[in-house]
Design brief:
The structure is a homodimer.
Chain A (H helix, E strand, L loop, with lengths): L1 H24 L5 H11 L5 H4 L1 H7 L6 H24 L2 H4 L1 H30 L6 H12 L4 H10 L6 H30 L3 H33 L7 H20 L4 H11 L4 H29 L8 H28 L4 H11 L3 H13 L5 H33 L15
Chain lengths: 424, 424
């Protein structure tokens, strides 16, 4: 019976994800928007309301353990490849100053706006036992995310990858990744360890030890292993298994430090040698199953964690506030940063609009917050809708701005076609 | 907490599998023997006896749902690739008569010996509620398995793939796969549906409908899909997702028919177009994660299902009987078949010895039997030990026979080196 349920859940989830991905791609959206929407459709808000009995049977709480394990493995693999890619991305060094301006300012502005919103949202939406500051800082961190992968995808689909603002926003997104994830890790650790001086000390010591272990020990070890056992960048079964054990070990260590497995996975990805062949061959081995089979399960579980309360009249105002703070904070911050770095208005606006795509990364962040008890299902739902909306608006915004920007760079914009394996 | 447990289980299992695989490879064994042994080590017989508290905490019954889901997905993916490979293997048509003799006789002899053993084993080892014939036929089917993948691996490692008896045993193993799995499906369905005329009718109708669906509907559909959307044999994300949905759908249908998901997965693999590029690109996308990460979980769960009772004095006799029936039945049957087909004594003996390798396939079969309630943990353990022993003896037996056979074919035998991604 349990195998039957699991297979049925997998079929329904993969089927819905593909249909929605396909439908939204025909509307010019990256298919990750469709897959995120598929997760919402399978949750209590849509399927649970339309087919309550089927939904209750198919996704009964007691049957979700298997999906959850598959999704955890998928998430760890996904974040590992993100870390690898971040390291392989060379742009940051080439335009450090501009990427720094855009990255830092477009992180700080939505972060501050998020913290500023917290006193308004706190009374109604904070879970029991969570203090004001962890809640406020998490909200800020959640608003400050940019999705490096979906951004790369949008640029590639439109032939904008080699434009100045395209390169700039990619590099800035890499900076945001680092800054926002450090803030987030800090907040989550704070929530797990409690507030106060002792907790701060614990987090700091833990983080230093972890960084020392990963960069002082694992980095040289795996550099040696890959140099001697996979000099052509093609890891054998044994090397791949060693990488997996290292990856799972880092994920486990971060869980022990009251962080979340995704941080360790990401960190481990960044410690491997910068090698395009290695990145390509690891991505070839890891991405097909994790992107096609495992990530839709993550979206579905996120959808199952949503709450219809977020769509009540009382809550819609809060949702709009969050969406506005996220959008204006991000676009404004990106625009300001690019202007400061000497870019023209149009390129700066395009950069800001691209930084606003939050994609799957935002879902990972809010899932971390939900698991850590920093937010409840209602705020989780609002942030999920915000992630969907900001990601979906990037394409149309680029259409508005893009035509002229593209003309200025002498290439033609192409609409989204069949996408590659990943876009998040 | 649950994520921590899952990560810890994954690390321990993958680590043990790699260490054992590495150790046994240095003894000239294919690493799958080591990985199977690793599963036994993690079970109650070894780790459970040495470190009962750690074992009880790490592998508590309530925490195995995640591992089980991951292992199910791994198994379905694995059997799908086996089905694909069977279809791509051209040998059977080229030497239909000889492969038929070896395949059929080396299936029937151990099957008959297994049934003959059943009256001896039945009183002590049959689970409650299972009649004599399902038990006896299952035991026969379990003894009659040959592992196509591990056989291919052993031949490749020793440079014997192109020898006459190498080709013969590969083709015969393909025949065994088909015959033994049909017998097994029949037995499992019988156990699920109950004995009697009605049950037989149900099984027959279900099997005909399933075969009609897969070969009449899915086969032309996927042939068309692959021809139009992946003419270069490189499936896109969408095509890969469609294949996964078809695969999971077939697995689900067989579960509904009181069979086991592995049958549907295997059947679906055999219905795809015979195309080497497609096989290669699908294997590249599916095998790394399923072989390196997911299959060791299957071995570990098999190990956790074993029982120390199988090693009591009272049971050792039964275990030896099973081992003898399996070994002599298979080697004798293969030898007889090859002699009948006109091969010399040495080549025939080598063929029989190769057919005796049961590898991972045997574990899948006995897991099916355990899940269906046809056997209990004690007999499961005996059959697992038999699978390990028969697979491990293939290399030494080939050393005994091989030197002369190889000389007769003018090539040199090479010992096992670093193996490729799969060997089961």
């Amino acid at each position: 019976m349990s195998t039957t349920t699991l297979l049925l859940q997998l079929i329904v989830i993969l089927g819905t994800a593909r249909v929605c991905g396909w439908a939204l791609r025909h509307l010019g959206q990256p298919s990750v928007v469709g897959e995120m929407a598929a997760g919402m459709l399978l949750g209590p808000v849509v399927m649970g309301a339309l087919l309550p009995e089927v939904h209750g049977q198919l996704f009964a709480k007691a049957t979700l353990g298997g999906l959850s394990a598959l999704s955890t493995v998928g998430l760890v693999l996904f974040m590992f490849v993100i870390g690898l890619e971040l390291r392989a991305h060379q742009g940051v060094r080439q335009q450090l100053r501009a990427a720094g301006y855009v990255g830092v300012i477009s992180t700080i502005v939505p972060l501050v706006l998020g913290v500023a919103l917290a006193p308004v949202l706190h009374p109604a939406l904070v879970p029991a036992g969570i203090g004001f500051w962890p809640f406020a800082l998490f909200l800020g961190a959640a608003l400050s995310i940019t999705a490096f992968p979906v951004l790369a995808r949008i640029l590639k689909d439109r032939g904008l990858s080699t434009t100045a603002f395209g390169q700039l926003s990619l590099s800035a997104a890499a900076v945001v990744d680092v800054v926002a994830w450090i803030v987030l890790a800090f907040v989550v650790a704070l929530a797990g360890a409690g507030e106060g001086y002792d907790a701060l000390l614990k987090i700091t010591v833990g983080a230093v030890l972890l960084a020392g272990l990963v960069y002082g020990l694992l980095r040289p070890f795996f550099a040696w292993l890959l140099r001697t056992h996979a000099p052509d960048g093609e890891p054998s079964t044994t090397v791949l298994a060693s990488l997996m054990i290292g990856l799972l070990g880092c994920a486990l260590l971060t869980e022990w430090l009251h962080l979340h497995a995704v941080f360790g996975a990401f960190l481990f990805g960044t410690c491997l040698p910068r090698d395009d062949r290695l990145l390509r061959s690891l991505a070839q081995r890891i991405e097909p199953l994790s992107i096609v089979v495992l990530m839709p399960l993550f979206f579905a579980l996120a959808g199952l964690s949503t709450s219809a309360n977020a769509f009540s009249n009382a809550s819609l105002g809060a949702m709009l506030l969050i969406l506005a703070a996220a959008t204006f904070g991000k676009i404004g911050g990106g625009l300001a940063g690019a202007r400061l770095a000497g870019y023209g208005w149009r390129d700066s606006l395009a950069t800001g609009s691209l930084m606003n795509a939050r994609g799957l990364m935002e879902l990972i962040v809010i899932k971390v917050g939900l698991d850590a008890g920093l937010i409840g299902p209602e705020l989780f739902t609002m942030l999920l809708v915000m992630a969907l909306a900001t990601t979906a608006m990037t394409g149309p915004l680029m259409n508005l701005i893009g035509g002229r920007v593209v003309a200025a760079h002498g290439t033609t914009a192409s609409l989204a076609t069949e996408p590659g394996p990943r876009e998040a």
